[in-house]
Write a structure and sequence with these properties.
By secondary structure, the protein is of the alpha+beta class. It has one helix and ten strands; from the N terminus they run H-E-E-E-E-E-E-E-E-E-E. It folds into two domains: about 30 residues; about 130 residues, Sandwich (Immunoglobulin-like). Helices cover about 20% and strands about 45% of the residues. A hairpin with a 2-residue loop joins strand 1 and strand 2.
């Protein structure tokens, strides 16, 4: 009988000690939701000419996610003038696109940027955030993706 009491007591103490740990794991786990996980990104800067002269520009981007987009997650593209994250020249909220048989779940962005306010590059960052503003993921993980604005580079720049 005494062994049974000791075994039950040890089991209860083990459950009490383990319960707070399980709660802690769950509370940090939702920051790693697959729908907030940026798997890969592509971004492209393009001038919009009028009569052969560039008068405006836009940045187009896509990011692939670990799962279809969630309604409570915000997907944001931020474009900075120059090669640093200082002068915001464009922002866009993402438009979710569900996965198909041939494409992963993704979010697409398009934002105009003022051609006259830019240096020779723009710098791009994509984030996923909770409604309270907490950043869940960011691409690139640090810094930003620099895109030359007067370049013969064709196609999108890939990043993660």
């Amino acid at each position: 009988m005494r062994r049974s009491v000791i075994a039950v007591t040890v089991g209860l103490v083990g459950m009490l000690v383990a319960a707070p740990m399980a709660t802690a794991v769950q509370s940090t786990g939702d920051a790693k939701k697959a729908c907030a996980d940026i798997v890969e990104g592509r971004v492209n800067y393009q001038s919009l000419p009028v009569d052969g002269n560039p008068t405006s520009a836009e940045v187009l981007a896509q990011m692939d996610l670990g799962a279809n987009a969630c309604k409570n997650i915000r997907y944001t593209l931020t474009v900075f003038g120059g090669s640093t994250e200082v002068d915001v020249v464009g922002t866009a909220s993402g438009v979710p696109v569900a996965a198909t048989a041939t494409t992963p779940p993704r979010v697409e962005f398009q934002t105009p940027v003022s051609f006259t306010s830019l240096s020779d590059v723009v710098c791009v960052v994509i984030t996923t955030t909770k409604s309270n503003g907490e950043i869940l993921d960011r691409a690139p993980d640090s810094g930003c993706v620099a895109l030359p604005i007067n370049s013969s580079i064709a196609g999108a720049t890939r990043f993660r």
